[in-house]
Please model this.
Amino acid sequence: MEFRLSDEERAFQEAARRFGDRVLRTHERQIDAEGTIPAEVLAAMAELGLLAMTVPEAYGGMGASAVLTELAAEEVGRGDFSMATAVFFLLEAGWGHILARHGTEATKQEVLPAVTAGKAFLGVATTEPTGGSDLAAMRTAVRRDGTQFVLRGEKAFVSGVEEARRLGGGHLTLAKADGGGFDLLYVPTRAEGIATQRFENMGRMGISTGALTYADAKVPERYLLGEERRGFDYAMEGFTVARTFVSAACVGAAERALETGIAYIRERQAFGQPLGKFEAIQFELVDLYTQVEAVKWQVRRAAWLLDQYPLKGDRSHRSEVDLAVASVKLTAPQIAFECVKRVMMWFGAAGYTKDAGLELGLRGIMSYLVGAEGGLNIMRIILGRELLGKEFVPYR
Ligand SMILES: Cc1cc2nc3c(=O)[nH]c(=O)nc-3n(C[C@H](O)[C@H](O)[C@H](O)COP(=O)(O)OP(=O)(O)OC[C@H]3O[C@@H](n4cnc5c(N)ncnc54)[C@H](O)[C@@H]3O)c2cc1C
Model:
C-alpha cells in the first residue's frame, strides 16, 4: 500500500493549487456575479492542461490518470468556492474520457482538441423534465434514418447549455432507441432543430443549467458512441468517473471552508479570548477535520480504483468500484456542506454576509445534495444493491 503521491503528482498538485489561489480565487466573485467563467480563466486552465485532462494526448489532452485528475479537482473546488469551475472541469474530464473511449475517430478528432483548448464545451444530457433518477423512464427518443439519427424530446437541468451554444460543443445525450435499449450520441448544441433555455439557479452561477429541446434534430451516425442500444452502459460508466471528481471537488471545498474557519477562530475574540480557545469550537473543528480526512482518502482510493479498472475498460471489479464511488458521492457533498455551514456559524452574523464568502460555497455544494450527478438516495440505492443484492434492490 502506498499513500505517498509520486513526484509528478505532487508537482501537478502544487501547480493546480497555485492556479487555484492566483486565478480562481481572484475571479470567483466575478464568476458568480456575471454568470460565466471569463475567457482568460478558461485559457489559463487550458494552458495548465486542466480542460478534459483525462483525454489522450493525441486529442490535445494530458491522458491524465484518475488520481491526477482527482487531485486537480480538489484544487479547482478549493479555488473557485462557488463550484462553477469545478463543474466545468469535472464534466469535461468525465465525459471527455467517455467520448475518447467510445467515440468514433472522426468525432474525437473533431470535438476533443477544441474541448481541451477551451474552444468548445462538452457535457452530458440525461435528465428530463419528468425526472433524472429513473433514467430508464426517459422519453427522449432517437431513431435511425439511413446514415443519421433523428432525436425528439427534451432534456432539463443540463449544465453548460449556454456555454455549448456560445463556445461551440455539445452534450453526450442519452435517448431511448427505436426497437429497445438506449443510444448515447454526441449532440452539437448548434445543430438545427435544437433549442436551449437557461434556468435561474441559486448557486454555481458561472456555469449555465437549462433545457435542451430536440425537434427532430438530425445527428450524423459518426456521433454515435460505441454500439447502438448500449448507450445506457456508457452513460453509467461516465457517471462513475464524474461522481469521483464531484466528490474530489467537495473535498477541496471542505478544506477551504476549514482553512477559512481556522484563520477566523484564531483571531476573533469573545469573552476575552480567541474563539479557538473554546473547547466547544475546537471539538467541532476536530470532528469536521477527521471527517474530511476520511472522505478525502476514500475519494483518492476511488480514483485509484478507476485507474486500475474502468479507465482501462475493465468491468471485472464493477461492484468494488460502484461501492467506492457511490460511497464518496453520498458522503463528500454532505461533509462539505456541513463544514461550510459550521464555519458560517463560527463567523456569527459576519458569516451571513457576502463579504465572508461562505455563502458561495453553501449555494454551490447544495447542487450536489439536490441531485447533480445523481441524488443522495440514488447513491444509497446503488450501495444497497451492492450490499444486499439485486433481489433486494431491483434497480438497474
Ligand atoms: C445544478 C445542477 C446541474 C445539473 N447538471 C446536469 C447535467 O449536466 N446533465 C444532466 O443530465 N442532468 C443534470 N442535472 C440533473 C441531475 O442529474 C438530477 O437532478 C438528478 O439525476 C435527479 O433527478 P431529478 O432532479 O429529476 O430528481 P428526481 O428524480 O425527481 O428525484 C427527486 C428526489 O427523490 C429522490 N429519489 C428518486 N428516486 C428515489 C427512490 N427510488 N428512493 C428514494 N428516493 C428517491 C432523489 O434522490 C431526489 O432527492 C443537474 C442538476 C443540478 C441541480
Remarks:
- The first helix runs from residue 7 to 34.
- The beta strands are 121-125, 141-145, 148-159, 169-177, 182-188, 194-198, 209-220, 269-270, 273-274.
- The two ends are 33 Å apart (CA to CA).
